[in-house]
Model the fold of this input.
Amino acid sequence: MIEARTQPSRMAASDRRQQLVETALDVFSRKGFEGATTKEIAAAAGVTEAVIFRHFPSKQALYKAVLDYTVQASGHEGWLAEIKACMDRNDDAGLLRALAASILRSYRKDPRFERLVLFAALEGYEMGLAHHHQVAMPVYDLLREYIVRRQREGAMRGHHPGVIIEAIAGMTQHYAMMTQLFGYSAPDGLSDEKAIETFTEIVMNGIQPAANPTKKNHK
Done:
């Protein structure tokens, strides 16, 4: 007896939308907003352009959905909670370590997210840049307020708070870009954990106040 074959069920609307967002992320991260086309995205997803516009009214709307998805998939709320916990217990080194780890983890988990932001900057695409600012600036302000408080408490030197943030973020991001996007190997087999610890120590040694400063005898 030959069993009747059933036709495969159509993909649910929510699943199709997710597939299109994932596919668009891949294409946008390789070609930027200007270089990517909905025709190319549709072909990569195995659908027609009509299917894309059934779920998204425009290419810009699809791009916005991709940007929102990158924040959701990045675990933003989780590492932000970790940073706030460090602040609550005045764990300066832990805070810097958590910030560096979140940056490096983002590159390692899915470098497409970072490529998307880089393309937005290179193209000067306002939607991508505005979305990045919307996500990044509240975190920056939170870190800045914490550093200012710790400086007032005498726990940190009076360096510009923004420069302190850029020091730890800049070192980590450059390292991540070189090893993840440019294909360079970590120096001497350096682990990510050791790199993060080293960056943290470099910054901490530059912002901690001198302990028990000695007075020079003038003869």
Summary: The radius of gyration is 23 Å. The chain is about 75% helix and 0% strand.
